[in-house]
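Encoded backbone
================
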Amino acid sequence: MQTVTLNNGVKMPIIGFGVYQIPDAEECENAVYEALTAGYRLIDTAAGYLNEEAVGRAIKRSGVPREELFITTKLWIQDAGYESAKLAFSKSLKKLQLDYLDLYLIHQPFGDYYGAWRAMEELYREGKIKSIGVSNFLPDRLMDLIVHNEIVPAVNQIETHPFYQQTESASFMKEQGVQHQSWAPFAEGLNNMFGNQVLASIAERHNKSVAQVVLRWLVQRDVVVIPKSVRKERIVENLNIFDFELGVDDIEQISALDTRESLFLSYHDPKFAKMLGTLRVDL
């Protein structure tokens, strides 16, 4: 498995398996089990996805040695804060049936994420988390966190796909030593991604699927990807991206698809910030 090296020396698989929007426990457990059987070693979940227990059962069922795995989960907004973050971490660890996490992320840049970060720094120093990072942090908030804390986030997981390529954020994160990770690499099928003529023609030239082309494009940018599927054949297909390489022309064509705007939400919108800030999930 190809890896990237994080700013603390920890190696992270460049492709993993995501479980967002797989709330059904049995379906989630089976999907993660199939992913681990297929060869995935990075599994990405979150307290807010409400499926950590299913992920934990799949990990145990797979029989894959713990040291071969890279498990990520995330802290939800309502648990931001020093004490509440520590409690939430323990709860997630118990649900996952693990003794430590490989990566723990602040899920959203709202609430008392400074208190949460201090708690995560302590858990990191205690060896309970191998790496700590963030998700959905824009460059200004990421820099603010870096300037006022001791540990630089190892990862920032942000929306990244052909229609929102995040080139400026990627450059900034590289300068700061923060690993770029993509969520929604397929844009959840929006903008007719799987029917896009540019992507389809590139896929045809390489005898690959559009999904494989998108994942290969991200990997060639050194972006960690976490595609999701509940279909065994797609799970296997998404991992099969290391036997071809996109050329300069391919990459230029994909670059031209960038709209430079999110297809989902705006972190500059106060209404969105209020909605997330007041949302309570039964964790």
Summary: The radius of gyration is 18 Å.
